[in-house]
Amino acid sequence: MIIYAVLQVVITALNAPIVDRAGRKPLLLVSATGLVVGCLITAVSFYLKVHNLAQEAVPVLAVVGIMVYIGSFSAGMGAMPWVVMSEIFPINIKGVAGGMATLVNWFGAWAVSYTFNFLMSWSSYGTFIIYAAINALAIVFVIVIVPETKGKTLEQIQAVVNP
């Protein structure tokens, strides 16, 4: 837990000044890619455990996978969606749209929490492969849908979002 907390604080602190230089979209893409990698490493650790292969590597892979996931989440997917959301919604719907985005976010968190134990009882490594696939879909979503807002005024962002 201490390593988890330190990692999250350090990555978030190091990432804060990078947001305006690198841009929101690249950080989201790097973050989502790290989420996929973290899930896949964790899936491999569970696969090895279930099949009694390389048992000495299982705990290390599990911890590395979770730390990669946490670090990647802290680097982009934790904060960037909230930053982008605040920039892309017009002022007249910002409150309602922000509320809807928050509702969708919390619904997703609930869905993961609710289904996690069911999925783990079905297949421990399969669970993390599913999560990796969902995060891979997030990469596609960011590439196709999310506009880059770096260095743009709210008026320029609105012109891109609402042509």
UniProtKB/TrEMBL annotation:
UniProt protein name: Sugar transporter ERD6-like 7
Q: Which UniProt keywords apply?
A: Membrane, Sugar transport, Transmembrane, Transmembrane helix, Transport
Membrane-protein topology: Multi-pass membrane protein
Top-level taxon of the source organism: Eukaryota
Ranges of residues in domain Major facilitator superfamily (MFS) profile: 1-150
Which family does the record claim for this protein? Belongs to the major facilitator superfamily. Sugar transporter (TC 2.A.1.1) family.
Fetch the Pfam families from UniProt: Sugar_tr
Q: Which cell locations does it reside in?
A: Membrane
Q: Where are the transmembrane segments?
A: 27-48, 60-84, 96-116, 128-146
